[in-house]
Amino acid sequence: MRPTWGAALWGALLLAWGLRATRKGPPEDGTFYYGSFPQGFSWGVGSSAFQTEGAWEQDSKGPSVWDTFTLSGRGRAPGDTAEVACDSYHRVQEDVALLRELGVTHYRFSLSWPRLLPTGVRADGLNQKGLRFYSDLIDALLQSNITPVVTLHHWDLPQPLQARWGGWQNASMAALFRDYADLCFQAFGDRVRLWLTFADPRTMVEEGYETGRHPPGLQLQGTGLYVAAHHIIKAHTLAWHSYNSTWRGRQRGLVGISLSCSWAEPLDAGDPEDLEAAERFLHFCLGWFAGPIFTGDYPQAMKQNIGRKSVEQGLERSRLPAFSRQEQGLIRGTADFLGLGHFTTRYVAARSWPAGQGPSYRDDQGLQELADPRWPAAGYPWGIRRLLHFAQTQYGDPPIYVSENGVPQRTACAQLCDEWRVRYLRGYVNEVLKAIKDGVRVRGYTCWSLLDQFEWDRGYAERYGFYFVDFASTVRPRYPKASAHFYKRMVQANGFPSAQEVGRWHLQALESCSINSQMLAAEPLRSHMQMVTEIVVPTVGTLCVLLAAVLLAVLLRRRC
Ligand SMILES: *[C@@H]1O[C@H](CO)[C@@H](O)[C@H](O)[C@H]1NC(C)=O
Ligand SMILES: *[C@@H]1O[C@H](CO)[C@@H](O)[C@H](O)[C@H]1NC(C)=O
Fold first, then answer.
1. pTM higher than 0.85, yes or no?
2. Any signal peptide, and if so, which residues (predicted)?
3. What is the pLDDT of residue 75?
4. Domain architecture of the chain: domains with CATH
């Protein structure tokens, strides 16, 4: 259901009123906390295969659903494809050098399932060149003292699995994923200790099977996404058990999952209905996957709401599938840690008007999400601390890695001086530190992302990177932004030593970016010079040689 103008206007009024009525969070939220992270805290950046690699049909890689979707112009940014993206497939050494420059202790990246298994099916054969590519990347990281954190599946499903089996709608996908995961454990597990099975599966199924904005582009309102998620949870479970029973003894690694969710702040914290709506938001967003994996079943709020609505809609069974007793036992406890992705905060109010037409994920939640029109550029950093607390109390105090956190720039042009991102980063990381002081077991922080990359249905219109990528140039040059400099200092210091020190980083970061901006501005001139040396000089040179040869021939002829 798309929000109507009436609803939007109503929402805006409600928000204006609500923000007046609520406080801006507890007072300690506003103060900055100077201090260090625990020793051995892991600092990293993230990326994913489809968004960065390019080389979409090289070296026997099979097509993914994203290749098919973008190449047929079905994205919201038609014409933007990831055929080359950051060209990271050919620039691994360059990327690893940037990671060394940042000084991070881990790098989170994903394996492309169709690059390793072109048809998606293990029995159909492994692509040795794909294997070699990831093996080399892992070795290069280890040689640089950087821990690889590997996502098995970040949205780029092999197209044949979609075409032949209907993708995640089909229960047989769970075993196919298990076989793929098992292959990865076997091939890379001697060197990889930290695994994530899936990355943000909620967005994958919501956009793929409900809104249709992502492949496979289906709009199976209020049904398809629940079925897909059900199979994904089973796939995760099988992969975890495969690791636990076959590989853990030898490899001693950890297998988790990365789940992304906004924090939901009740619009009016004094209104019990808004409070309940905000909690419901979190259960539909995070609990949908974390509930089964950590506690054995879907959250009560989901079972109740979807069940009730299904009855009202005249259905015999709930649109939310159910796990059997036996399945619950198998699923419960299948994460050695929680990977938590978080980008922003939403204000949430209970919805008090009738639902729209037909069933939908939005309708099932029975709430209204509101964006703050005065949204501060640096976000609402306290949201991450509250979300970490929620995860700690709901899911039995698991070890947590912040697996994604960042902010995009919505412009195609180069702005290396991203002071607003520096402020976002400083604020959010500080709230993670506060959560650790509160007792949440946060083990690492991963900023999203290393490079500006292909942003799914947004194409190249959003830039999340520490490094600006010039997508107009064939060599895809990378330039550090101010935030890269700031992050590097924070990682080096393992936290925030003092106001004076942090203030100094801020100034240095801005100085460094103004120098880099000048270099970038000179880029057209440089590539012009490059063209002169690469094309004009050889061409002129060849012509001279030819001319000389002709003259020589003429001279020789004369002599005879
Ligand atoms: C699911 O996959 C199997 C093959 O494993 C296929 O025979 C079946 O038709 C598929 N079911 C659906 C609903 O697509
Ligand atoms: C994981 O493997 C260990 C060792 O084989 C076993 O004792 C344990 O029961 C397994 N855990 C689960 C939940 O199956």
1. yes
2. 1-21
3. 76
4. 32-521 (3.20.20.80)
